[in-house]
Amino acid sequence: TQAFSPTTLTREGETRHLAWSGEIVAANAPDVWSLTEEHLRTFAAHQVTLVVIDLSHLRFIDSSGAALMVRLKKMTTVLGLQILFCQPQPNICNVLRLTRLEHLLLEGGQ
Known about the structure:
- There is one protein chain.
- The chain is an alpha/beta fold.
- The chain has helices at 29-45, 63-79, 90-98, 102-105, and strands at residues 7-12, 15-24, 50-61, 82-86.
- Strand 2, helix 1 and strand 3 (50-61) form a beta-alpha-beta unit.
């Protein structure tokens, strides 16, 4: 499997963009959580209001990846941030649809 890689892409005012790539599965979900959580806490400390996570290069998630997305959505609410997961690949949408999380996590329930 390809290593997971969160990358800060751009800064637009009070918005920050991250990109996830590779796969998020049970074996690496704790590492993905740690890296992404660190970014989110930094963003919150700098008055960021919106975080966009680009999923276009994320090839696969299992139920651990879906659970991680839910956990991040809850965390951002506590931190006063809004989070958007955008541009998911069809297989990511399928996992979220099967776990009934599509409408909670994806804009417009893609």
